[in-house]
Write the structure tokens for this entry.
Amino acid sequence: MAYVHKGWRKSLYSPHEDPHRVLIEEIGPGYAEYRTEWEQTTKLELERSYPVQIDFELNVSCNLKCPMCTWSAEATYGKGKSSWMEFEFFKQIVTDGVTHGLRAVNLNYINEPLIRRDLPQFVRCAREAGAVEVMFNTNGLLLTDELTQELITAGLTKLSFSVDAFSAETYAKVRVGGEYAKLLKAIHRFLEIRKELGVRLPLLKLTFLRMADNLHELEPFLDYWEDKADLFSIQNLHNPFDGAMREEKQVHFTTGAPRTPTITPRCPSPFQRVTVRANGSVLPCCNMRAAEHLVMGNAHTADVKSIWNGEKMQQLRILHQQGRYAENPVCKACIDNSDSWAPEPR
């Protein structure tokens, strides 16, 4: 499969017929409505009274130390179960959210969601509440056959694996602490179990973060997985670190072709989604810097609807509508250090 980089930070596509058609056939017209709203908010053509999607940080932990992630700068791999999001808190937000128009639920932020063995409970809760899309991204190393079956029967709609390599040697550089053979086995077993169960969902998405260490393996990666995955996400990430750490880490990143946008950059995230962290903090996007510098409120003390329609979120949306993103340091760092100014509809 020939891949031509188009200058986006995230380029999501499929070598097959529109994979979302499968989801529409399996889930119904509600999924088509969700996709329409997602695309409208991507273009900033629609302002909703509630986010289309909520991302949840269910646990503050990860089992890897990838150099492009802020976890690689942490002293430990996590803060323990005492910091995990309580199920009832999650259930309350999702149940209330669906009544206000919530369509999609993503079960990770900057963490590894499979650390939580009760993850299928969260999937089932969201689907039963009425969310038409329930998904998450994982490094896949903790996925077992039993957990795969539980996630499928719970109603997961998309499962995304971070692969980022086509050899054990390169994988060891970009996914520090991981085991390439174990990841491959997990992905293939997922496909086998899905087939054995006679179902089409969840769709399989594979991601590849383009970095200096793995650029040479993008084409063989795509060639190998072309007839196996339903979706691919090829991403260019900007350096999320500051100060001396930024210079130290820069060797791992690639900036791609120079960005020459024909219009002023605008980010759709504040029009589409929020992230609810395990401590209740609500962020307007999934940016790593947002966790410290762009908190819109806390879901323990205010409902998501009021935060979404609050002054902080409204002002952030105005900044992007008017092309004044540079006035917000988090948005400026994200946009100016990326060869992308808006994500392609997923």
